[in-house]
Write a structure and sequence with these properties.
Elements lengths: L1 E5 L7 H12 L5 E5 L5 H13 L3 H22 L3 H19 L8 H25 L4 E3 L16 H13 L6 E5 L2 E3 L5 E3 L5 H11 L4 E6 L20 E2 L1 H9 L10 H7 L3 E5 L8 E3 L8 E16 L9 H11 L4 E6 L3 E6 L5 H8 L4 E15 L8 H7 L8 E4 L5 E7 L3 H12 L1 H7 L5
Parallel strand pairs: 1-2, 1-7, 2-4, 3-4, 7-9, 8-10
Antiparallel strand pairs: 5-6, 9-10, 11-13, 11-14, 12-13, 14-16, 15-16
Bound molecules: aspartic acid and magnesium ion.
């Protein structure tokens, strides 16, 4: 069994949905296909919910109708047989009614969750109808029948595995099982979701819960790149990477994969293959535990970082100081990304500054506080173990003229990160690209005979 997940762009138009069907149908193993909502749809659904909260029913109705019309034009191009077009039309009308039913009512979080679930419900239903039209052996299974989260809001992987195994065993002769990413039932058995971008996580949880052979994540880029292609011209897609390196990169800015989705796969040691729906022939990137060790695997950057420095002589030779500092962040539900300390100061970074005012207020009791915004964390993944001599100097040699605000090294063997001003980010990424990937230099130079 393998799991194939397709993101919003992959199912973003009738043409693309047909491409997805081709990819799925060329897969030889029995498979589970996890789909996102069509691109942009979850944003629209979120807008509609926001309008309902504000009782702006007229505006909400306009958005609902726009979405309905958009879907209507999709099905015109997706299906060629009248029967399937009619079926799809029924589905859309039913969905349209559900959405309109919230008009003139008291809107609650329950309603919002139900609305947000509709994107994946529609994309999977349309895909199942398409598979039927082209005569493929597939079944739609509802994620709401097995994807269950517990009190912590996290998926209950064992329960999920039990329910899903039963569902699969009842369909042993069905080649493709189609299901929704993102949506789930929560501890109260209500419709909920795994948070924005959560479809990758769904795929990984499904794969891990049934111990599948491989999880494939299909997007619109050919795998993970050695550097951020939005800011660096010469990047290449990497053939393979370890789970630990991939986790660091996904967390620190590589947009290709939801950071949480590495964990279930790593726990069960299931290889994750990142592929491009629009270039299925290219190799993609394999995340697995047998990746050949290399000095520098890849670089990523994460923006909108805030640094907070707490300077206090009370820290000098004292114990328990950091605990008190961390408690402030815990109370404000804010996670810390990087941390460095000196004898009389501690600097740390956060990426969610929602509670910054309260945090500063509470930290003031400890000493002098300095806050700096508009920073970026640059994350370098590779073999950064302490015995790999020369690797840190190679990195910093590239950055002679760049002011560096913080450095984090030695936390793991796979990662070195540092903090710079976001205005320096593009320069940093390019300098590192030039200095750390000699392979690129070789490609650039003309061959001399
Ligand atoms: N459709 C959801 C979102 O846009 C989940 C996903 O696509 O991963 O956040
Ligand atoms: Mg996504």
């Amino acid at each position: 069994m393998i799991v194939l997940k397709f993101g919003g762009t992959s199912v973003g138009s009738p043409e693309n949905i047909k491409k997805v069907a081709e990819i799925v149908n060329s897969c030889e193993e029995q498979n589970i296909v996890v789909l996102s909502a069509m691109s942009g749809v979850t944003n629209t659904l979120q807008n509609i919910s926001d309008l309902f909260y504000l009782s702006k029913f007229k505006e909400a109705k306009l958005e609902i109708n726009d979405l309905y019309n958009k879907y209507k034009s999709v099905i015109q191009d997706l299906f060629s047989k009248k029967y399937f077009l009619l079926k799809a039309d029924e589905l859309l009308s039913h969905n349209h009614k559900i959405m309109l039913s919230f008009i003139d009512s008291d809107f609650t979080e329950k309603g919002e969750k139900l609305i947000l679930a509709q994107g994946e419900i529609i994309s999977t239903n349309l895909f199942q109808l398409l598979m039927e039209e082209i005569g493929e052996n597939s079944n739609l299974i509802s994620a709401l029948d097995f994807m269950k989260t517990g009190i912590t809001g996290e998926p209950e992987i064992n329960l999920i595995g039990d329910s899903l195994s039963k569902i699969i065993s009842e369909r042993s002769n069905v080649k493709t099982l189609i299901t929704q990413g993102f949506i789930c039932k929560n501890e109260y058995d209500e419709i909920d979701n795994l948070k924005r971008g959560g479809s990758d996580y769904t795929a990984s949880i499904i794969g891990a819960s049934i111990n599948c052979n491989q999880i494939q994540i299909w997007t619109d880029i050919d795998g993970m790149h050695n550097n951020d292609p939005r800011f660096v011209d010469q990047t290449f897609s990497i053939d393979e990477i370890s789970f630990d390196e991939a986790a660091e990169l996904a967390y620190f800015g590589a947009k290709i994969l939801h950071p949480k989705s590495i964990i279930p796969a790593r726990d069960k040691n299931i290889p994750v293959l990142l592929k491009n729906t629009f270039k299925p022939e290219s190799k993609g990137t394999l995340i697995h535990n047998k990746a050949k060790i290399v000095n520098i695997r890849a670089i990523a950057a994460k923006d909108k970082i805030t640094a907070i420095k707490i300077k206090s002589y009370r820290m000098l030779m004292a114990y328990g100081f950091l605990k008190k500092v961390f408690e402030v962040f815990e109370q404000n539900k804010t996670s810390i990304d990087m941390i460095t300390t000196s004898e009389v100061a501690v600097s740390l970074t956060i990426d969610d500054a929602t509670a910054i005012d309260k945090i500063i207020q509470q930290l003031k009791g400890f000493g002098r506080i300095e806050v700096e915004n508009d920073l970026s964390i640059i994350c370098i993944a590779g073999n950064l173990a302490q015995n790999n001599k020369g690797i840190t100097s190679a990195i910093f040699n590239c950055l002679e003229n760049i002011p560096i605000r913080m450095i984090s090294y030695g936390g793991s063997n796979y990662n070195l990160s540092f903090l710079v001003k976001t205005t320096d980010k593009t320069d940093v990424l390019n300098l590192l690209n030039k200095g750390l990937f000699p392979r690129l230099e070789k490609v650039k130079k003309p061959v001399l005979i």
